[in-house]
Amino acid sequence: MADPRSLPDATEYLRRMRAGEQSAEAVLEEHLSRLARFQPDLNGATHVLAEQARAEARSPRPGPLSGLPVSIKETFGIAGASITAGSRVRPPDYCESDAEAVQRLRDAGAIVIARSNVPEFVMAGETDNPVYGRSSNPLNPDHTCGGSSGGEGVLVATGSSALGLGSDILGSIRIPAAFCGVVGFKPASAAVSKAGSWPSGDDDLFVDSWLAAGPLARSVRDVRLAYGVLAGRDPDPGAAPVRALTGSGFAWRAEHPSIAAAVAGARAALAAGGVEGDPRELPDVRVLFKAMTRILAHELVPHLKVQLTDAEGRRFSVAAELARRMTGRGRIYPGLLQLLALGPVLRTLFPGGVNRARETILGARTRIRAALGSDAVLVAPTVGMLAPRHGAMNRQTLKPGVNYRMTALTFCNIMDLPAISVPAWRFRDSGTGLVPGVMLAAAPGAEDTLFRAAEIVEASIGPAPAHPGAGIAEPAP
User: Fold this and answer.
1) What is the pLDDT of residue 64?
2) What is the DSSP letter of 388?
3) What are the distances in angstroms from CA 257 to CA 126, 180, 233, 402?
4) Which helix (H) or strand (E) holds 420?
5) Which pLDDT value is given to residue 200?
6) How far, in Å, CA of 131 to CA of 121, rounded?
7) What tens digit of pLDDT does each residue of 418-437 get?
8) Burial 312-350 (b: 16+ CB within 10 A, else e)
9) 445: left (phi over 0), alpha (psi -120 to 50) or beta
10) Which candidate in 116, 135, 148, 197 is catalytic?
């Protein structure tokens, strides 16, 4: 089992290389060694690009990330590679060039060391697929690492990469960050280019405004640095956080006592830093969840079925897949099948009203951004449960109705708010070794305010160990 706190963060590695304390080649070999150690058991990577990375490390490109080993979610294009999205059914997409976000990292001097594993079609909170198999949690391998950027959570937590690039449509960066004990940041949807990634942006799909590309790292300062590179600019200097919004509409549920305790600890840390509670009438997550479900049923599920068209042009059929599965010949991951099978059920439960659902969400976005302004944050659990055992995540999340364990998480996608998950190591569960995540969100444009608040929380509930850099340690009992 791994403990990310025992490792230097990306900022520290960059300092060492600039000071001449470590060469880029030495830093790379350190990461490759950890990747070789953990990959057989945890399966975070789909491809290891060792020789290409070694060639680049001999003369790293100058820039703010010069010589830093990074990993990339499998759904981002890398020149000369193919994107499978973990599917054996749809033909792979061959990439002639890097995705724009990948190119930004390279231009800043980063060295791509590996591509990371995903759930099939990146549509589940567990990372498992028919092409590359299952990834496991580095804090407790009997449990899921989350998804869909689950492989990134594994690689960053084990020190197999110093920084990871993921994507997030309904929690896909923040779930694995929370489950694996690292920091994950979902920017606003348009802040970081999604060009050259899968699924490609589609202006006709409202759900594209829920999807964002962003970093996973071992510290908030790393996330701040990476966001500046990925967005092409540093966050605008903002006001220090002075308000933390609260309201009855923002409902969530925590299943484990460590989660509620972590949120309370985060709020206490902010209060000690001068951030006052600000009761507001917030958009009702129950209304928003129903609007989200309408759009998923009438927009996303049909889109996914089209994407599953095979190389012979045959459209995907849930009935045919169920028949194949009865004889052991299923072709897609059970979690994806569960989501696709829900489509007709959801359309029956939530008929029509897609345009009205969009209007409901757009109106709520206007209200929440006005309430947040430039100086306020929301605080909630990242996920209302600790990482479940393998197979349990989909059963607990892929079903109709309002799921209060996930409302805080999905609220930020639906509202298109930048949101960050910070690991609450002070509230680690002694029985499983798992760590709850605390999420903070702010209005688009107030990223600096958000990072300042996250740094206050990180210093209080997730401090680093006394001797970082000593290697990966066993977790405390």
Assistant:
1) 97
2) P
3) 23, 18, 39, 21
4) strand 419-423
5) 73
6) 11
7) 999 999 999 999 999 999 99
8) eeeebebeebeeeeeeeeebbbbbbbbbbebbeebbeeb
9) left
10) 148
246-258 pLDDT per residue, tens: 887 788 999 999 9
CATH for 4-281+359-461 (3.90.1300.10, 1.10.10.10, 3.90.1170.20, 2.40.280.10): 3.90.1300.10
At 214, which helix (H) or strand (E)? strand 212-217
Q: Is the pLDDT of residue 470 over 50?
A: no
* Coil, helix or strand at residue 213: strand
The reply to whether 194 belongs to the active site is no
Using 50, 70 and 90 to split pLDDT, how confident is the model at 373? Answer: very high
Beta bridge partners, 111, equal 69
Among the listed residues 211, 273, 292, the one whose alpha carbon sits nearest the alpha carbon of residue 456:
273
**346 has a pLDDT exceeding 60:** yes
* 218 has pLDDT over 50: yes
Name 308's Cβ contacts closer than 8 Å, sequence gap at least 6.
87, 89, 90, 121, 315, 316, 332
CA distance 114 to 23: 20
Answer yes or no: is pLDDT of 473 > 70.
Answer: no
Asked, as a colleague might, if the bond just before 423 is cis with ω within 30 of 0, I would say no
> Residue 389 has which token pair?
């055992």
Q: What is the pLDDT of residues 50-103, one digit of tens each?
A: 999 999 999 999 999 999 999 999 999 999 999 999 999 989 999 999 999 999
Q: Active site includes 219?
A: no
C-alpha separations of 63 from 29, 68, 78, 105, 303 in Å? 20, 10, 20, 9, 39
Place of tokens 């976005």: 365
Condensed to tens digits (0 to 9), the pLDDT of residues 112-158 reads 999 999 999 898 899 999 999 999 999 999 999 999 999 999 999 99
CB 86: neighbour CB atoms within 10 A?
29
Inter-axis angle of helices 220-231 and 10-18, to 10 degrees?
Answer: 80
List the structure tokens of 82: 């193919």
Residue 82 is a catalytic residue: no
Which one is catalytic: 73, 197, 219, 460? 73
Q: How confident is the model at residue 464 (pLDDT cuts 50, 70, 90)?
A: low
**What's the gap between Cα 320 and its chain centre?**
32
Q: Give the active site residue among 172, 189, 209, 460.
A: 172
**Nearest Cα residue to 182 out of 158, 165, 160, 166:** 158
Q: How far is CA 346 from the centre of its chain?
A: 25
Residue 443 — φ and ψ, nearest 5°?
Answer: -75, 150
In a 10 Å sphere around its CB, with 0-12 CB exposed, 13-18 middle and 19+ buried, how is residue 1 labelled?
Answer: middle
